[in-house]
Design brief:
Elements: H1 21-24, H2 46-49, H3 56-66, H4 76-82, H5 87-99, E1 103-109, E2 115-121, H6 175-190, H7 203-218, H8 223-231, H9 242-252, E3 273-275, E4 282-284, H10 293-308
Antiparallel strand pairs: 1-2, 3-4
Helix pairs in contact: 3-5, 6-7, 7-9
């Protein structure tokens, strides 16, 4: 009974230094049941998966992007259609990855002249290398084009300013009301900037919109009501084309014509009272009449007798 078992350790062994995983197996920590991948896998460094500053959404998004084949769209709308986090959280995560060097987004011009965003995923932050065949290729330089012949109809600059887009059509007043209402319509449009500085209109825009305002005024709409319809519930963001917005409202919210009222019979003319030159009685008649009706009747009966010499 006093013989010691020489094969038993004298005390419990502690975990070797630098390897605390073994001791945590007995305290409820994570266990790994790993199987070696031979296909469809991507190598991701612990510096990303255990990054101390990146959010969990940013880490997961970076792992997803690194696993995608070259050329897969990774813009905000495409990622929001794939995941449930929404555009704002995805946009914040992409900015995190850009800040820490796991993502690069550059605006480049294609051979056709369009601007696109090229996104480069980096598995090592702040590490650039020469573009390989698997990377997003840089567009080749555009071949020189022959200079076009300059004519009066051809602009010397092929990339000159784009022509201004035409404003939407507005309602037109009747020809009879246009001359009387256009000055009032112009005054109303030029005064809109006092209600909202964004509604500052040019002379050309004012001339285009004035007939539409006159069409509203022709339908018995007061200037105050029309001004309220044009300036209420405007969007909060800057108005790049305020004239187009006003043209749309003038057309879409145009009220119907006022109800038809048949012209009424004018009231009878009431002449002032005057005294008859014959009998001095008061009667109502135009200023041209000097005798009342009775005196005029007597005079009409007496004239034939006088003319015949019978009186």
């Amino acid at each position: 009974m006093d013989t010691q078992n020489t094969s038993a350790p004298p005390r419990a062994r502690s975990a070797p230094a630098g390897n605390p995983t073994r001791s945590r197996h007995h305290t409820g920590g994570v266990l790994h049941d790993n199987t070696r991948h031979t296909t469809r896998f991507v190598v991701i460094g612990n510096h990303l998966t255990q990054h101390p500053e990146l959010s969990l959404v940013a880490i997961g998004l970076a792992c997803h992007i690194q696993s995608l084949p070259t050329g897969t769209p990774v813009d905000i709308k495409s990622l929001a259609a794939r995941f449930k986090e929404g555009t704002k959280r995805i946009a914040d995560a992409l900015r995190e990855l850009e800040t820490h060097g796991y993502l690069r987004r550059e605006r480049i011009r294609t051979p056709t002249g369009h601007l696109i965003t090229r996104t480069t995923s980096c598995n090592q932050p702040h590490h650039r290398r020469e573009a390989a065949p698997t990377d997003c290729p840089t567009p080749p330089p555009r071949p020189p084009r022959p200079a076009p012949e300059r004519t009066p109809q051809t602009s010397p600059h092929p990339r000159g300013p784009r022509p201004r887009k035409a404003l939407p059509a507005v309602p037109q007043p009747t020809r009879a009301a246009a001359a009387a209402l256009l000055p009032q319509a112009t005054d109303l449009l030029t005064g809109l900037r006092r209600h909202d500085p964004r509604l500052l209109l040019s002379t050309t825009d004012t001339a285009h919109l004035a007939p539409g305002v006159a069409a509203w005024l022709e339908r018995d709409i007061t200037p105050t009501t029309l001004r309220h319809a044009l300036t209420t519930d405007l969007p909060d963001e800057p108005l790049h084309r305020p004239a187009a917005l006003l043209a749309h409202r003038l057309t879409a919210q145009l009220p119907p014509p006022p109800p038809f009222h048949a012209p009424t019979t004018p009231p009878p003319v009431r002449h002032p009272l005057r005294n008859c030159d014959g009998c001095d009685h008061a009667f109502r008649a135009p200023e041209t009449e000097t005798h009342c009706r009775d005196c005029r009747t007597d005079r009409n009966h007496q004239r034939p007798l006088t003319a015949l010499g019978l009186t």
